[in-house]
Amino acid sequence: MHAKANAKQWINEGYIHITSTITMCVVMSMIVFVLGTFVVDYYKTIVVPHDLYFPSVTAVTLCHKCSTSSPSSLPNHLNVEFTDSTGIVDIWHAMSDAELMEKATRVPRFVEDQSKVVFMFLTRGSLPLGPFWERFFKGHEGFFSIYIHTSLDFNYEPPNSSAFYKRRIPSKHVQWGKSTMIDAERRLLANALLDFSNQRFILPSETCIPLFNFTTIYNYLINANQSFLSLFDDPTKIGRGRYNKRMGPTITLEDWRKGSQWFEINKELAVEIISDNLYYNLFQNHCFPPCYMDEHYLPTLVNKVRPDLTTNRTVTWTDWSSHRSHPEIFRKVNITETFLNRVRYESNCTYNGGNSLICFFFARKFHPSCLEPLLKIGPRLFGFSP
What we know:
The chain contains ten helices and eleven strands. It is of the alpha/beta class. Helix 2 (97-106) crosses helix 4 and helix 4 crosses helix 6.
């Protein structure tokens, strides 16, 4: 009897042990499953978020992207493109500005074999000199990206043969000199950062023209050691005179800088700009006319956080010789080879530690009437395709 009781107890303990083992295995499996799901979802959020910048992605295409006119310094590599159901890359998305900035700062910073130069156009509508820019970009697909911030009421879409086709980003209202202007610039940068291969970021105005062909500008910028964003200490009333003491002690009068709105920067500095909240909020709360954010925010920010990343000059030429509140506007009658060559070559600056006679790669302000003579001069002076 005693032996039977012992056997029964042994069997019961065995069942309990087996049941406990099975239960533990099931629990561990559930934990592994949940943890795995979390890791996969987190990876997708950081590396390949579904709404990152390509809506309704349906295909991945491998294609060769080096034409005979592409920059000769780059070898012929495979480039990966994400396309929608029409076969065209579309950068439109439904993210809020906060979501956009967060994702842009979390995108991996690795450099692909084929780096691209980004052209970010801040415009009210169609580019007045768009056909000239089309000639500039022609034949260099895969080496550049275009992002356009427009007025809210502008909904024209150019033909799918255009370099500007489906390159508009979700835009908001912009007022000159206000914080909304900076918001638009940061919005352009954040959208551009979502493409890993974008390495250099240019903000030209809608009245800008390129002064050299694409290959020359591409090689100059891709190989530059620093960014091209001007910042200087202006002791006059339109410089230091615009400083608001309420910005101190975070921003002091000694920190205050002024510079051109039209910049060219590298990826590292682009991330710094869209990541900033501290200095942006100070400017938004304390910079009002005669203080203009587009003239002071970026120069002061870069002077505070990463002055080592800029050459302290711009690559966009502007004629301020009239000493008025707005620069000179050039019209059809001004467009000659002599004038353009003077702008292109009659300067002195430094590039990667050495002296250079080529300092400007873009120029402004050019009236729409300049388009016709520019298209005539372009093939001969810039080497554009006729």
